[in-house]
Structures are given as structure tokens and as C-alpha cells.
Amino acid sequence: MPRTQEQNEQVREITRQKILDSALTIYVRYGYAGTVMDQIAVEAKIAKGLLYYYYKNKRELFVDLFDKTIDHLSSASEDFFKKTEGKSAIYKLVHYLKDIFGLGMKDSRLIQFAMRMPFDAYAVFGQSGWKKGMKGSEIHTLNLERIISDGISEGTVTCRDAKSAAASFWTVYVSGLFRFTSMMSAKGMDNTDIPTDLEALLGFGMAGLGVDEETWKTVLYEMRLWKNENL
Description:
This protein is mainly alpha-helical. 79% of the residues lie in helices and 0% in strands.
């Protein structure tokens, strides 16, 4: 029996997602310039002709990949600030970084993508769209800047320049997380058993912001994200 139009659309969407997932895998290994369509087809286990049926060239594929990633990050960002509305800046900061840590443990490619994306935004989006691409690639630093600025207003963060502090914090944090990812991914993580590597990353970054150690560790305990013996 022939497939219905709805079934055909489902098959097309599954194939498209397989292509995007494979493109992500190749991208984090070689970057945009080093990625070729043949590699993606091999990774996706599909014929090259089928790949070109969905995307006429590499740039078109990567625009879709980057757009979908930016949309996902934007949606997750909105959800985060909604669920933490009314909370202190330190609460938001700890919670946000815990979420990023968990994301990296589940799929290390997402952290590698976050590190590469700012450097490739212009090549992918071109002159007309690179600003949108850069803004999307900087969503984490923009969110941290927003939280740190609130912390400065509250008096819980002692640094003066939220923008510079956010950029430095994110660079240190994501670099450290990248280092831990391959080792920690096999361990898994949940809200009651977070690896001590998270504490190390938080501690270093919080010290740079001038946040009192007892303050952010208390937030971890209150959020039930840390075992008593680790405090």
C-alpha cells in the first residue's frame, strides 16, 4: 500500500534530521571550512544524491543547522528566565550553568558547536545575515551578562563590567567543560548526583565575579543539586 502524504512527510523529516545530526558530528570535528558534503552523506548513511535532494549545497545545509540550533537555544533561554523569574541572580547563575553542564554531559557535540559557531557565523550566513548569526551564537554570553548585571545591582556580584565578565566567565566555563566532556559523558548526571567537576568550574568562575563561596554553594544545596557531603 502506498504511503500517505503525511507518512511521506514524516519520512522526509526523519531523513532531514538524520542529515542535520550527521552534519553536526562532522562539523565539530572539522569546522565549516573542513566539512564536505560527501562526509555528511557517509555519516548519515545515505546516497549523496539524496543529500543534495534536501540541500543543494553545504551552505544551505549549515544555514538550516545553525538556524535550528539558534531557535532551540532561544526557546530554551526564554523558558529558563520564565521558570526562574523572581529568583536571585546567584540562583539563576548556578541554575543556568548547571543546565549547560548537563547539556554537555548528554551530548558533547553541543559544547563543541558552541565553541565553533561564533567563528563560522559569517561564512555560513554571509554579509546579509551574519549579524543575526553572531547574535544567536552569543546567546549564552548575553544571558550571563543579563544575570551578572542583576547580580551587580543586587550587590552579590562585585565586578563592575557585566559584559566583559560574562564573556570571560563563558570562555573559562565552556573551555573547562569541553575538557571534562569526554571523560564525564559516560557517567551520566541527574539532579541529585552532579560530578565534582561542576563545583570546580563554578568555583573558578564565581571567584572571578567576586561571589562569596558560601553564597553559591548554599544555592546548590537549596536547589537539591548537591549532596551534603560535597558542601
